[in-house]
Amino acid sequence: MWDPYSEFESTTLPNGLSVYACKWARPWQTIGFVVHSGARHDPIGLEGLSHFVEHLVSQNASIASKEIESFFGSHGGSVMFGSTGYSSTSYNFFVAAKQSVVARALDIFGSMLISAKLQNSVEREREVIIQEFFRKYQAKVRVEFEAREVKAVYGGTWRERFLSPMGSPESVRRITQSDLQAHYDANYTPANISVVCVGGMGLSELVSLLSSSPFGKEKRGQRKPLPSAATDAPLPFESGYVFEMSEVLRADVSPDAGSYLSMARIPGAVNSNAISGVRSVLAKILFEEVREKRAWTYHIATGFNDFGDIRSFFIDCGSIAPGALGEIAGVVDRCLSEVAKREDMLRNARHEAVLNLWMQDPNGRQVRDEAMNDLEGHQRIKTLAEIEEEIMVVTAEDVSNVLEWLKPERRWTRISRP
Q: Which pTM does this prediction carry?
Protein backbone atom coordinates (compact mmCIF):
# COMPACT_ATOMS: atom_id res chain seq x y z
CA MET A 1 0.00 0.00 0.00
CA TRP A 2 1.03 3.57 -0.67
CA ASP A 3 3.06 5.26 2.04
CA PRO A 4 3.87 8.78 0.79
CA TYR A 5 5.87 9.59 3.92
CA SER A 6 8.37 6.83 3.11
CA GLU A 7 9.18 8.66 -0.14
CA PHE A 8 10.75 11.70 1.51
CA GLU A 9 14.44 12.28 0.95
CA SER A 10 16.30 14.66 3.22
CA THR A 11 19.53 16.54 3.66
CA THR A 12 20.97 19.34 5.77
CA LEU A 13 22.59 22.39 4.21
CA PRO A 14 25.99 23.55 5.54
CA ASN A 15 24.24 26.36 7.44
CA GLY A 16 22.01 23.87 9.29
CA LEU A 17 18.80 24.17 7.23
CA SER A 18 16.92 20.83 7.14
CA VAL A 19 15.30 19.99 3.80
CA TYR A 20 12.78 17.19 3.14
CA ALA A 21 11.50 16.53 -0.37
CA CYS A 22 8.98 14.12 -1.88
CA LYS A 23 8.91 14.20 -5.68
CA TRP A 24 5.62 13.60 -7.47
CA ALA A 25 4.97 13.82 -11.19
CA ARG A 26 2.91 16.98 -10.82
CA PRO A 27 2.99 20.45 -12.44
CA TRP A 28 2.96 22.15 -9.02
CA GLN A 29 5.22 22.53 -6.01
CA THR A 30 4.15 23.12 -2.42
CA ILE A 31 6.71 24.07 0.22
CA GLY A 32 6.21 24.49 3.95
CA PHE A 33 8.54 26.01 6.51
CA VAL A 34 8.63 24.94 10.16
CA VAL A 35 10.34 27.37 12.53
CA HIS A 36 11.00 25.19 15.59
CA SER A 37 9.99 27.91 18.04
CA GLY A 38 6.52 28.82 19.20
CA ALA A 39 4.63 30.34 22.09
CA ARG A 40 6.16 28.03 24.67
CA HIS A 41 9.49 29.77 23.98
CA ASP A 42 8.10 33.23 24.75
CA PRO A 43 9.82 34.88 27.74
CA ILE A 44 7.79 35.15 30.93
CA GLY A 45 5.83 38.39 30.79
CA LEU A 46 6.09 38.63 26.98
CA GLU A 47 3.52 35.97 26.10
CA GLY A 48 2.48 36.42 22.48
CA LEU A 49 5.97 37.38 21.27
CA SER A 50 6.24 34.50 18.77
CA HIS A 51 2.79 35.27 17.41
CA PHE A 52 3.63 38.98 17.11
CA VAL A 53 6.79 38.14 15.13
CA GLU A 54 4.73 35.91 12.83
CA HIS A 55 2.43 38.84 12.10
CA LEU A 56 5.36 41.04 11.19
CA VAL A 57 7.53 38.88 8.93
CA SER A 58 5.24 39.29 5.90
CA GLN A 59 5.07 43.03 6.58
CA ASN A 60 8.86 43.29 6.40
CA ALA A 61 9.65 41.12 3.38
CA SER A 62 11.57 42.31 0.33
CA ILE A 63 8.29 43.36 -1.31
CA ALA A 64 4.88 44.38 0.06
CA SER A 65 2.50 41.65 1.22
CA LYS A 66 -0.04 42.59 -1.47
CA GLU A 67 2.66 42.16 -4.11
CA ILE A 68 3.52 38.77 -2.63
CA GLU A 69 -0.10 37.65 -2.86
CA SER A 70 -0.28 38.98 -6.42
CA PHE A 71 2.87 37.05 -7.41
CA PHE A 72 1.53 33.73 -6.16
CA GLY A 73 -1.94 34.36 -7.57
CA SER A 74 -0.56 35.23 -10.98
CA HIS A 75 1.11 31.82 -11.11
CA GLY A 76 -2.00 29.90 -10.06
CA GLY A 77 -0.77 29.45 -6.52
CA SER A 78 -1.44 30.58 -2.98
CA VAL A 79 0.48 31.70 0.09
CA MET A 80 -0.01 31.25 3.84
CA PHE A 81 1.81 33.99 5.75
CA GLY A 82 2.00 32.24 9.09
CA SER A 83 0.42 30.28 11.92
CA THR A 84 1.82 30.19 15.45
CA GLY A 85 1.43 27.16 17.68
CA TYR A 86 2.91 26.37 21.05
CA SER A 87 5.88 24.39 19.69
CA SER A 88 6.48 25.94 16.28
CA THR A 89 5.52 28.58 13.75
CA SER A 90 4.70 27.54 10.20
CA TYR A 91 4.42 29.10 6.74
CA ASN A 92 3.77 27.65 3.28
CA PHE A 93 3.15 28.34 -0.37
CA PHE A 94 1.76 26.52 -3.41
CA VAL A 95 2.89 27.42 -6.91
CA ALA A 96 3.71 26.10 -10.38
CA ALA A 97 6.72 23.78 -10.44
CA LYS A 98 8.76 26.05 -12.68
CA GLN A 99 12.34 26.72 -11.67
CA SER A 100 12.13 30.50 -12.15
CA VAL A 101 8.85 30.71 -10.21
CA VAL A 102 9.99 28.56 -7.29
CA ALA A 103 13.30 30.45 -7.17
CA ARG A 104 11.42 33.75 -6.86
CA ALA A 105 9.10 32.30 -4.22
CA LEU A 106 12.10 31.14 -2.16
CA ASP A 107 13.71 34.57 -2.47
CA ILE A 108 10.52 36.14 -1.09
CA PHE A 109 10.19 33.67 1.79
CA GLY A 110 13.89 33.83 2.53
CA SER A 111 13.63 37.60 2.96
CA MET A 112 10.74 36.98 5.36
CA LEU A 113 12.20 34.12 7.40
CA ILE A 114 15.95 34.75 7.37
CA SER A 115 16.90 38.37 6.74
CA ALA A 116 13.99 40.58 7.82
CA LYS A 117 14.27 43.74 9.88
CA LEU A 118 11.04 44.06 11.84
CA GLN A 119 10.51 47.79 11.54
CA ASN A 120 7.33 48.22 9.51
CA SER A 121 3.76 48.02 10.83
CA VAL A 122 4.73 47.22 14.44
CA GLU A 123 2.06 49.39 16.07
CA ARG A 124 -0.59 48.53 13.51
CA GLU A 125 -0.10 44.80 14.01
CA ARG A 126 -0.02 45.24 17.79
CA GLU A 127 -3.55 46.65 17.59
CA VAL A 128 -4.62 43.96 15.12
CA ILE A 129 -3.48 41.26 17.57
CA ILE A 130 -5.26 42.87 20.50
CA GLN A 131 -8.46 43.00 18.46
CA GLU A 132 -7.86 39.37 17.44
CA PHE A 133 -7.84 38.51 21.16
CA PHE A 134 -11.09 40.36 21.82
CA ARG A 135 -12.73 38.76 18.80
CA LYS A 136 -11.93 35.33 20.22
CA TYR A 137 -12.86 36.28 23.79
CA GLN A 138 -15.81 38.60 23.24
CA ALA A 139 -17.29 37.86 26.66
CA LYS A 140 -15.27 38.48 29.80
CA VAL A 141 -16.73 35.32 31.29
CA ARG A 142 -14.99 33.25 28.60
CA VAL A 143 -11.62 34.62 29.65
CA GLU A 144 -12.44 33.75 33.26
CA PHE A 145 -13.59 30.26 32.20
CA GLU A 146 -10.42 29.45 30.31
CA ALA A 147 -8.07 31.06 32.83
CA ARG A 148 -9.52 28.92 35.61
CA GLU A 149 -9.36 25.83 33.41
CA VAL A 150 -5.74 26.46 32.43
CA LYS A 151 -4.69 27.03 36.04
CA ALA A 152 -6.43 23.84 37.18
CA VAL A 153 -5.16 21.56 34.42
CA TYR A 154 -1.72 23.00 33.63
CA GLY A 155 -0.74 24.63 36.93
CA GLY A 156 3.02 24.68 37.52
CA THR A 157 3.93 24.27 33.84
CA TRP A 158 4.75 26.69 31.01
CA ARG A 159 1.25 26.11 29.58
CA GLU A 160 -0.28 27.85 32.61
CA ARG A 161 0.85 31.20 31.17
CA PHE A 162 -1.34 30.99 28.05
CA LEU A 163 -4.97 31.09 27.09
CA SER A 164 -3.72 30.87 23.51
CA PRO A 165 -0.46 31.45 21.61
CA MET A 166 -1.46 35.09 20.97
CA GLY A 167 -0.83 35.96 24.63
CA SER A 168 -2.98 38.62 26.31
CA PRO A 169 -3.59 42.30 25.54
CA GLU A 170 -1.46 43.20 28.57
CA SER A 171 1.54 41.09 27.51
CA VAL A 172 1.30 42.18 23.87
CA ARG A 173 1.37 45.83 24.94
CA ARG A 174 4.65 45.19 26.83
CA ILE A 175 6.49 43.87 23.77
CA THR A 176 8.98 46.31 22.25
CA GLN A 177 10.47 46.47 18.77
CA SER A 178 13.81 45.33 20.20
CA ASP A 179 12.06 42.30 21.81
CA LEU A 180 10.62 41.41 18.42
CA GLN A 181 13.91 41.72 16.55
CA ALA A 182 15.88 39.83 19.21
CA HIS A 183 13.37 36.96 19.16
CA TYR A 184 13.43 36.87 15.37
CA ASP A 185 17.23 36.92 15.18
CA ALA A 186 17.54 34.10 17.72
CA ASN A 187 14.86 31.81 16.30
CA TYR A 188 14.53 32.54 12.58
CA THR A 189 17.82 30.90 11.67
CA PRO A 190 18.56 28.11 9.16
CA ALA A 191 19.49 25.68 11.94
CA ASN A 192 16.07 26.20 13.54
CA ILE A 193 14.05 25.78 10.33
CA SER A 194 12.87 22.68 8.46
CA VAL A 195 11.66 22.91 4.86
CA VAL A 196 9.12 20.38 3.55
CA CYS A 197 8.66 20.08 -0.22
CA VAL A 198 6.10 18.05 -2.17
CA GLY A 199 5.64 18.28 -5.94
CA GLY A 200 7.34 18.20 -9.28
CA MET A 201 10.89 19.02 -8.13
CA GLY A 202 13.36 16.60 -6.58
CA LEU A 203 15.65 17.12 -3.62
CA SER A 204 18.79 18.09 -5.55
CA GLU A 205 17.02 20.75 -7.62
CA LEU A 206 15.34 22.21 -4.53
CA VAL A 207 18.59 22.23 -2.57
CA SER A 208 20.23 24.17 -5.41
CA LEU A 209 17.43 26.76 -5.38
CA LEU A 210 17.44 27.05 -1.59
CA SER A 211 21.20 27.46 -1.52
CA SER A 212 20.97 30.34 -4.00
CA SER A 213 18.27 32.09 -1.94
CA PRO A 214 18.51 33.76 1.50
CA PHE A 215 17.90 30.29 2.96
CA GLY A 216 21.44 29.40 1.95
CA LYS A 217 23.02 32.23 3.94
CA GLU A 218 25.04 31.76 7.10
CA LYS A 219 23.23 32.98 10.19
CA ARG A 220 24.14 32.06 13.73
CA GLY A 221 21.58 29.96 15.59
CA GLN A 222 20.67 26.50 16.82
CA ARG A 223 17.74 24.11 16.78
CA LYS A 224 15.38 24.30 19.73
CA PRO A 225 15.40 20.85 21.36
CA LEU A 226 12.25 18.83 21.86
CA PRO A 227 10.87 19.08 25.40
CA SER A 228 11.48 16.19 27.79
CA ALA A 229 8.32 14.17 28.37
CA ALA A 230 6.93 14.55 31.89
CA THR A 231 6.49 11.34 33.85
CA ASP A 232 4.14 12.66 36.54
CA ALA A 233 1.36 15.20 37.04
CA PRO A 234 -0.06 16.71 40.23
CA LEU A 235 -3.71 16.65 41.15
CA PRO A 236 -5.68 19.70 39.96
CA PHE A 237 -5.82 22.53 42.49
CA GLU A 238 -9.60 22.13 42.56
CA SER A 239 -11.92 19.33 41.49
CA GLY A 240 -14.06 21.76 39.53
CA TYR A 241 -16.89 24.19 39.96
CA VAL A 242 -20.46 24.90 39.04
CA PHE A 243 -21.15 28.03 37.03
CA GLU A 244 -24.58 29.65 37.12
CA MET A 245 -25.15 31.24 33.71
CA SER A 246 -28.04 33.32 35.02
CA GLU A 247 -25.57 35.33 37.10
CA VAL A 248 -23.92 36.83 34.01
CA LEU A 249 -26.68 36.75 31.40
CA ARG A 250 -29.39 39.38 31.05
CA ALA A 251 -32.48 38.75 33.08
CA ASP A 252 -34.60 38.37 29.95
CA VAL A 253 -32.37 35.58 28.58
CA SER A 254 -33.40 32.11 29.63
CA PRO A 255 -30.96 29.48 28.36
CA ASP A 256 -32.52 26.06 28.04
CA ALA A 257 -29.33 23.99 28.13
CA GLY A 258 -26.31 23.52 30.36
CA SER A 259 -22.83 22.23 29.63
CA TYR A 260 -20.27 19.78 31.01
CA LEU A 261 -16.50 19.82 30.62
CA SER A 262 -14.04 17.49 32.36
CA MET A 263 -10.28 17.59 31.78
CA ALA A 264 -7.23 15.75 33.09
CA ARG A 265 -3.51 16.35 32.68
CA ILE A 266 -1.53 13.38 31.40
CA PRO A 267 2.29 13.20 31.40
CA GLY A 268 3.93 13.26 27.99
CA ALA A 269 5.62 9.92 28.70
CA VAL A 270 2.25 8.10 28.58
CA ASN A 271 1.71 6.15 25.33
CA SER A 272 -0.14 8.47 22.93
CA ASN A 273 -1.58 5.59 20.90
CA ALA A 274 -3.04 4.13 24.09
CA ILE A 275 -4.63 7.53 24.78
CA SER A 276 -6.13 7.48 21.28
CA GLY A 277 -7.51 3.99 21.89
CA VAL A 278 -9.11 5.04 25.17
CA ARG A 279 -10.57 8.14 23.53
CA SER A 280 -12.09 6.09 20.70
CA VAL A 281 -13.69 3.49 22.98
CA LEU A 282 -14.89 6.05 25.51
CA ALA A 283 -16.52 8.11 22.74
CA LYS A 284 -18.62 5.12 21.69
CA ILE A 285 -19.60 4.18 25.25
CA LEU A 286 -20.57 7.77 26.06
CA PHE A 287 -22.61 8.05 22.86
CA GLU A 288 -24.57 4.94 23.80
CA GLU A 289 -25.15 6.06 27.38
CA VAL A 290 -25.65 9.80 27.04
CA ARG A 291 -27.42 10.11 23.70
CA GLU A 292 -28.86 6.73 22.75
CA LYS A 293 -30.15 5.66 26.17
CA ARG A 294 -30.88 9.00 27.82
CA ALA A 295 -31.25 11.51 24.96
CA TRP A 296 -29.47 14.15 27.06
CA THR A 297 -27.56 15.71 24.19
CA TYR A 298 -26.88 15.63 20.48
CA HIS A 299 -23.12 15.15 20.85
CA ILE A 300 -20.52 14.58 23.54
CA ALA A 301 -16.88 14.93 22.49
CA THR A 302 -13.69 13.26 23.67
CA GLY A 303 -10.17 14.21 22.71
CA PHE A 304 -6.70 15.14 23.85
CA ASN A 305 -4.18 17.94 23.35
CA ASP A 306 -0.53 17.02 22.94
CA PHE A 307 2.18 19.54 23.86
CA GLY A 308 5.05 17.03 23.89
CA ASP A 309 6.01 17.19 27.54
CA ILE A 310 2.41 17.28 28.78
CA ARG A 311 -1.01 16.36 27.43
CA SER A 312 -4.59 16.97 28.43
CA PHE A 313 -7.60 14.69 27.93
CA PHE A 314 -11.09 16.19 27.75
CA ILE A 315 -14.73 15.15 27.74
CA ASP A 316 -16.86 18.02 26.48
CA CYS A 317 -20.61 18.33 26.15
CA GLY A 318 -21.40 21.88 25.11
CA SER A 319 -25.15 21.50 25.28
CA ILE A 320 -26.89 19.14 27.67
CA ALA A 321 -30.40 18.94 29.11
CA PRO A 322 -30.57 20.87 32.41
CA GLY A 323 -32.15 17.89 34.13
CA ALA A 324 -29.09 15.79 33.36
CA LEU A 325 -26.56 18.08 35.05
CA GLY A 326 -26.87 16.39 38.42
CA GLU A 327 -26.22 12.95 36.92
CA ILE A 328 -23.75 13.49 34.09
CA ALA A 329 -20.62 13.30 36.28
CA GLY A 330 -21.60 9.90 37.65
CA VAL A 331 -22.44 8.56 34.19
CA VAL A 332 -19.08 9.73 32.82
CA ASP A 333 -17.25 8.03 35.70
CA ARG A 334 -19.09 4.76 35.06
CA CYS A 335 -18.35 4.96 31.34
CA LEU A 336 -14.65 5.46 32.02
CA SER A 337 -14.65 2.42 34.33
CA GLU A 338 -16.11 0.36 31.47
CA VAL A 339 -13.29 1.11 29.02
CA ALA A 340 -10.77 -1.37 30.46
CA LYS A 341 -13.43 -4.12 30.47
CA ARG A 342 -14.24 -3.69 26.79
CA GLU A 343 -11.31 -5.56 25.29
CA ASP A 344 -13.39 -6.23 22.18
CA MET A 345 -13.87 -2.50 21.58
CA LEU A 346 -10.20 -1.79 22.24
CA ARG A 347 -9.18 -4.43 19.68
CA ASN A 348 -11.63 -2.96 17.18
CA ALA A 349 -10.34 0.56 17.85
CA ARG A 350 -6.79 -0.56 17.14
CA HIS A 351 -7.87 -2.41 13.99
CA GLU A 352 -9.89 0.59 12.74
CA ALA A 353 -7.00 2.97 13.43
CA VAL A 354 -4.67 0.88 11.27
CA LEU A 355 -7.21 0.54 8.46
CA ASN A 356 -7.89 4.27 8.51
CA LEU A 357 -4.16 4.94 8.37
CA TRP A 358 -3.79 3.10 5.07
CA MET A 359 -7.13 4.16 3.57
CA GLN A 360 -6.31 7.86 3.50
CA ASP A 361 -6.10 9.55 0.10
CA PRO A 362 -4.07 12.70 0.81
CA ASN A 363 -3.23 15.42 -1.67
CA GLY A 364 0.11 17.18 -1.79
CA ARG A 365 -0.85 19.87 0.68
CA GLN A 366 -2.04 17.25 3.18
CA VAL A 367 1.19 15.26 2.90
CA ARG A 368 3.12 18.49 3.37
CA ASP A 369 1.09 19.42 6.46
CA GLU A 370 1.34 15.96 8.06
CA ALA A 371 5.09 15.93 7.47
CA MET A 372 5.33 19.39 9.06
CA ASN A 373 3.33 18.16 12.06
CA ASP A 374 5.76 15.28 12.48
CA LEU A 375 8.70 17.64 12.35
CA GLU A 376 7.07 19.88 14.94
CA GLY A 377 6.44 17.03 17.37
CA HIS A 378 9.29 14.64 16.61
CA GLN A 379 11.77 16.57 14.42
CA ARG A 380 11.54 13.74 11.89
CA ILE A 381 8.94 12.41 9.46
CA LYS A 382 7.20 9.18 10.47
CA THR A 383 6.18 6.62 7.85
CA LEU A 384 2.74 5.00 7.95
CA ALA A 385 4.41 1.64 8.54
CA GLU A 386 6.11 3.03 11.63
CA ILE A 387 2.85 4.45 12.95
CA GLU A 388 1.06 1.14 12.33
CA GLU A 389 3.70 -0.70 14.33
CA GLU A 390 3.29 1.75 17.23
CA ILE A 391 -0.49 1.23 17.22
CA MET A 392 -0.25 -2.55 17.13
CA VAL A 393 2.06 -2.86 20.15
CA VAL A 394 -0.32 -1.01 22.51
CA THR A 395 -1.06 -3.33 25.43
CA ALA A 396 -3.81 -3.65 28.04
CA GLU A 397 -1.28 -2.36 30.55
CA ASP A 398 -0.82 0.79 28.43
CA VAL A 399 -4.59 1.33 28.44
CA SER A 400 -4.80 0.81 32.21
CA ASN A 401 -2.02 3.35 32.65
CA VAL A 402 -4.00 5.94 30.69
CA LEU A 403 -7.13 5.29 32.75
CA GLU A 404 -5.18 5.88 35.98
CA TRP A 405 -4.69 9.50 34.87
CA LEU A 406 -8.43 9.87 34.16
CA LYS A 407 -9.73 8.93 37.59
CA PRO A 408 -12.27 11.37 39.08
CA GLU A 409 -9.78 12.88 41.53
CA ARG A 410 -7.40 13.66 38.65
CA ARG A 411 -9.99 15.46 36.54
CA TRP A 412 -11.13 19.05 36.75
CA THR A 413 -14.81 19.46 35.91
CA ARG A 414 -16.91 22.50 35.08
CA ILE A 415 -20.69 22.32 35.02
CA SER A 416 -22.63 25.28 33.67
CA ARG A 417 -26.23 25.58 34.80
CA PRO A 418 -28.91 27.76 33.17
A: 0.94
